[in-house]
Predict the structure.
Amino acid sequence: MFVLFVACIVFLVFSVMKSSDAYKIAVARAKSDRRVVTALGTPIKEGMFASGKTNVKGPSGEADIGIPISGPKGKATIYAVATKSEGQWRFSKLDVKIAETGETIDLNETESASNKEEVIAKKSAPQANVRVTSITLAREQGDELKTVKNFKRADNPEHILVTLSEGNSGAHVKTVWTNLDAGGVTNQKLWEKELILDMPNPRADFSLSNTNSKLFPRGQYKIDIYLNDTLIDTVRYEVQ
């Protein structure tokens, strides 16, 4: 009878722990992480017995738990340390340690952050002889774009067309629009946009619209054009 009583207590403790939001969030984060999936395979299952403790009082709480998980390729343990404040859980530690290799995967690093070097390498990798072949300002005229040197106040949106040479797939083109001296404002950054060319069309079309169809203030403006994070040209224009 005593053994049965102890078993019921243990089962109750584990049930409470597994029903906590901290436990559920930690498991969900692990199962959705590409690095964990690569190491363990799918499906990823939770072990029966977690360790540690959770303590929740309304909108506040704390958790320090270890959660065994496994997949077709191997086993691992989630280690989570978290505090709850104003109803939100924040993890000071959220790791997955792979049993077979000893590798520790930090789930507080997003996959994009963990793959930062890969992303930077792809972004900065030079495309074969890629270069800017033309930069053109344009206004809308019906369904077409008409080349201009300056804009009228009513031109809304304003366009700039950046054309690259062949072999541009993956090239990053960015424009930064600045109000140099217009409407009583100087050196005000208006807008920034980056496009990645991964299509046969070698032309990137950037446009700037004034909110609520207002007229652009008369004055001096500039657009800085970047290719793969390198400033390659600055176009100055006037709104007349």
